[in-house]
Amino acid sequence: MIQILKHRFLTTFLLLCCFTITTLASEDTTTKEKIDINEVIFSHIADSYDWHMWDITDEQGVSHPVSMPLPIILINTSPFSIDVFLSSEFHHGHSPVTKKEHTYVIYNNKIYYANNQEGELTFNEQGIIQNAQPIDISITKNVFTLFVAALLMIWLFTACARAYKRNPGQAPKGLQGFMEPLILFIKEDIAIANIGEKKHAKFLPYLLTVFFFIWFLNIIGLIPFFPGGANVTGNISVTLVLSLFTLFITNMYANKSYWRHIFAMPGMPVWLLPIMAVVELIGIITKPFALTIRLFANITAGHIIVLSLVSLIFIFQSLSISPVSVFFVLFMDVLELFVATLQAYIFTMLSALFIGMAVTEQEH
Amino acid sequence: MDLITPGFGLVFWTTVIFLILLLVLKKVAWKPIVGAIDSRNKSIADALKLAETTRAEMAQLQADNETIIQEARKERDTLLKEARDLKEQIIAQAQQEAKSEAEKITQQALQSIENEKLNAIEELRGKVAEISIEIAEKILAQELSDKKASEKFINQSIQNLKLN
């Protein structure tokens, strides 16, 4: 994927220099290798154990990926043991790794126990893998990006907090001046508007954190080179965890009136109540489910569209398509920048709405 | 299908990282930032309120000043009027006194003149008597024989004196 993005910059550059040269150059391409666009796109939006930077081609014409290895952490349950090693030991998934009594092998971007030290795996008649998996808490590309985003946020916001401490009662400036309207927007137009003046303070830290976390991750995902480009908020695990936080907070702080509306909706015939309770209980789950899917689908779709547009160059096997491709990618990137903010806002807004519905006294 | 299947590792790390981030940011960032913004908003609101009350106080003060000046002016006018009245009264009194004093002095002067005049008359009367006696002596000495002529002469002299 980085390779493609490199081409993207190359094409932009060439475009700027001279358009005719790019069309001529496309004619004498000697190595017209077929690229599996589908695989490239899906390997980008999926998580991975190492951080692919670029490919180099040696004298024999064989291309080798250059990537940053990331730590693999595997937990074996019987007997309990933890294996920690760098993903470079897998040689980009080509070779198995043996640690003490276990041999690990990467298949379809997942780590399995191999049958033997040669890394053999067992498949059934349908070609489905039969091998067991260790508990895998490796620092993958997405986990690494999560750490980067978290550290970036801690650094930026402590700097902000220091600025407030340094100039108490002064007008904000610089970074502080950039963040303050956003913080105030979340405080006043999201937290207070949905939860109410009295109870909003308890939930404000969560809403602020979730907004900036999603926003930062979305934007980091749009940066096409290291340490950006990881499709973190387009990964269902991440969006699931974030929406589960909203689910827990909503139901943990929910008041009597919220539960009464679920189990004993006022003004309902008694025989309808069991059905209503089931519907309402499903409602509890569908709210965070919608949050999960919305964020995941929006960000993943954005990444897929950008990658597909870049891939047009490789599908047509011609650089002359690059102006079109670059134009549309530029358009999509700008749109994605907007979507990055919008989705962070929607997630925070809906979280605040759900919390607000659970903690404020409802009047009918 | 892998795309929509949550992976345990990422779920685990997302939970851990998000929880830590939430707690750290809550402590080091959100509390101080929101607190600072709130206290700044409060201080601005207080300052505005103070400015408003100060303005009202200023207006009140100005109104008070106006009243005080008005009162002072009135008092000055009263004082001036009183002073003028007093002056006139004093002058009138002084004139009165001077007049009565002058009258008194004139009265006294007239009195003393009268007295002097009476004294002088009395004295003159004595002198006249003395002179008369002297004259009588001289006449007696000169014309003792001629008695009738002498008396005539004496009477004539006295009458002459009285007319004086």
Description:
- The complex is a heterodimer of chains A (364) and B (164).
- With 364 residues, chain A is mostly helical.
- Chain A folds into two domains: 71-138, no CATH class; 142-359, no CATH class.
- Chain A has ten helices and eight strands.
- In chain A, the strands form three sheets. In chain A, strands 4-3-8 form a three-stranded antiparallel sheet, with no helix packed on it.
- In chain A, helix 5 crosses helix 10.
- The model of chain A is unreliable at 13-32 (pLDDT under 50).
- The mean pLDDT of chain B is 88.
- Chain B has helices at 8-142, 147-163.
- The termini of chain B are far apart.
- The A-B interface holds A 42, 45-47, 108-109, 135-140, 142-143, 146-147, 150, 153-154, 157-158, 160-161, 164-165, 168-170, 179-180, 183-184, 187, 204-206, 208-209, 213, 235-238, 240-242, 245, 296, 300 and B 2-15, 17-18, 20-22, 24-26, 28-34, 36-37, 39-40, 43.
- Overall structural domain count of chain B: 1
| Coarse shape of chain B | rod-shaped
Structural class of chain B: mainly alpha
Query: What value does the average pLDDT of chain A take?
Result: 85
